[in-house]
Amino acid sequence: MNSNNSTPTLRVLDANANRAAEGMRTLEETARFLLSAAELQFQFKNLRHDLSLAIARLPRLELLASRNTPDDIGTKTSTPSEQSRPDTASLIASASSRVQQALRCLEEYGKSIDVEFASQVEQIRYRVYDVTARLECLSLTTDTRRQRLASARLYALIDAGDGVDEMQTRMKLLADSGVGVIQLRDRQLDDRTLYERACVGASVARELGVLWIINDRPDIAFAADADGVHVGQEELPVTAVRRIVGAERLIGLSTHDMDQVQTAMGSCADYLGCGPTFPSTTKQFSSFAGCDFLQSVSDYFAQLEVVPRPAFAIGGITTDNVQQVADAGFDRIAVTSGLAGDDVTKAARVFLETLKTNDAPVAGR
Ligand SMILES: Cc1ncc(COP(=O)(O)OP(=O)(O)O)c(N)n1
Ligand SMILES: Cc1nc(C(=O)O)sc1CCOP(=O)(O)O
Ligand SMILES: [Mg+2]
């Protein structure tokens, strides 16, 4: 170790070691609690650990002795941007830049004290560039998907059709008609074909600006880079689905009674399907939750203190009965056959206009 340990240099090192560690901890907590990103959380934990190992090379007693917070003129200056953190992405951006700047200071000032210390910090700084970019990206994608979901009123369920071209044409027609979410629900296809259609659909949906959800299959939703997956009550629990699809993809959960809705509100599901509302030509049911169930969901959501999840009424909804859905307080619907006929554009217009004029309490805002 070099003996050039002047007190000002040690003060810079002490202050920036703390700044870097605090920033890393902020990012780690964001990965853990806001974005459920276990792998990134693990990376930040390792970075903090490696930073403390590097700092352990410095003379701790002298570092502590150099600390003089009351006389530090820097503790009294803050900019307006330091006081405001409007969303997760900007919180990540500012914590990342604080960590990067602190590491650069440690590296530059550390060179005069211990070259090996400076070189270890340099390696940490490169890893920080990568991990912080991934975290910021994740948060931007997550926000965007959930924002798009929040503005969706019409959700269409489609099968894969007779081929890629037909599926693509159908998706375009639906998107042009105002559908915000499209689900691939096809129980006839083998896994390979389902996966291929899911991949094509994901890129078509991206171009069209609609969300692309895969029914039943978190593995395929993840592998095909879809926006999310929809699961039913007898399928994998949403906690397990979340582990497969990651924090940024959407998870939809079917609910058929109030117990399921209340449980879903405590889960990591992003939206609910509520039904069956009416008899359906797509799927057979022996009993129907009906509009009474929809009304109970609306009433329950209206008295919640937290923001409810977006909830889509489903099951046999047509242009003839959608008014009853709106009267039960819903302004979002998920539909298969009601958007599968010849005049999709007209049906979609009727749906949207009916849902828009809903002045009853609205489910899922
Ligand atoms: C939006 C939406 N809501 C409900 C369902 C039904 O899901 P599930 O109960 O798992 O039944 P299947 O679709 O798997 O037959 C859905 N798919 N989408
Ligand atoms: C797949 C499905 N699930 C439902 C539920 O209530 O959970 S109703 C349904 C069928 C939806 O298609 P259509 O609009 O043609 O009735
Ligand atoms: Mg299912």
UniProtKB/TrEMBL annotation:
Binding residue positions for 4-amino-2-methyl-5-(diphosphooxymethyl)pyrimidine: N215, S254, K283
One matching Pfam family: ThiD2
Free-text comment on the cofactor: Binds 1 Mg(2+) ion per subunit.
Domain of life: Bacteria
EC number per UniProt: 2.5.1.3
KW Cytoplasm (keyword) present: no
Pathway: Cofactor biosynthesis; thiamine diphosphate biosynthesis; thiamine phosphate from 4-amino-2-methyl-5-diphosphomethylpyrimidine and 4-methyl-5-(2-phosphoethyl)-thiazole: step 1/1
Region of interest: Disordered: 68-88
Compositional bias per record (Polar residues), positions renumbered to this chain: 75-88
UniProt xrefs under InterPro entries: Aldolase_TIM, ThiamineP_synth_sf, ThiamineP_synth_TenI, ThiD2, TMP_synthase, TMP_synthase_cyanobac_bac
Reaction catalysis annotation: 2-[(2R,5Z)-2-carboxy-4-methylthiazol-5(2H)-ylidene]ethyl phosphate + 4-amino-2-methyl-5-(diphosphooxymethyl)pyrimidine + 2 H(+) = thiamine phosphate + CO2 + diphosphate; 2-(2-carboxy-4-methylthiazol-5-yl)ethyl phosphate + 4-amino-2-methyl-5-(diphosphooxymethyl)pyrimidine + 2 H(+) = thiamine phosphate + CO2 + diphosphate; 4-methyl-5-(2-phosphooxyethyl)-thiazole + 4-amino-2-methyl-5-(diphosphooxymethyl)pyrimidine + H(+) = thiamine phosphate + diphosphate
Domain Thiamine phosphate synthase/TenI: 154-339
Segments forming domain ThiD2: 11-133
UniProt: Mg(2+) binding residues: D216, E235
Keyword tags: Magnesium, Metal-binding, Thiamine biosynthesis, Transferase
Residues binding 2-[(2R,5Z)-2-carboxy-4-methylthiazol-5(2H)-ylidene]ethyl phosphate: S280, T281, T282, G316
Function: Condenses 4-methyl-5-(beta-hydroxyethyl)thiazole monophosphate (THZ-P) and 2-methyl-4-amino-5-hydroxymethyl pyrimidine pyrophosphate (HMP-PP) to form thiamine monophosphate (TMP).
UniProt-recorded name of the protein: Thiamine-phosphate synthase
Lineage: Bacteria, Pseudomonadati, Planctomycetota, Planctomycetia, Pirellulales
